Amino acid sequence: xxxxxxxxxxxxxxxxxxxxxxxxxxxxxxxxxxxxxxxxxxxxxxxxxxxxxxxxxxxxxxxxxxxxxxxxxxxxxxxxxxxxxxxxxxxxxxxxxxxxxxxxxxxxxxxxxxxxxxxxxxxxxxxxxxxxxxxxxx
Length: 138
What we know:
Blueprint: E1 2-7, E2 10-16, H1 17-31, H2 41-47, E3 51-52, H3 57-71, H4 115-129, E4 133-137
Antiparallel strand pairs: 1-2, 1-4, 3-4
Helix pairs in contact: 3-4
């Protein structure tokens, strides 16, 4: 089942729920000292729970910019699949494209777009049309 970001009538496809969970797991594991939402509460707590309020869109934009910059310091082999089960590995194992150079460009949507770019587009749309962002399964 696919999951994505809904902003009013616009849907931004991400991919599987497990891939999205891995993205959030890496943030908590590498950047929040294993404490989910301790450094990036609006992204990790509010959006991950299903809906990001209009009032916090700009804050999440800032959080994601900081996360993207920090992820540049983590090689692709540092990826974790699930913070609750560190023995799990991505379904593709270590077979990744040569263009993936860090965790900042590791996460790609099911249609080949960078996670950070899709999140940024959704946040910008939410700001422009004044709508919250919802996590939604298709």
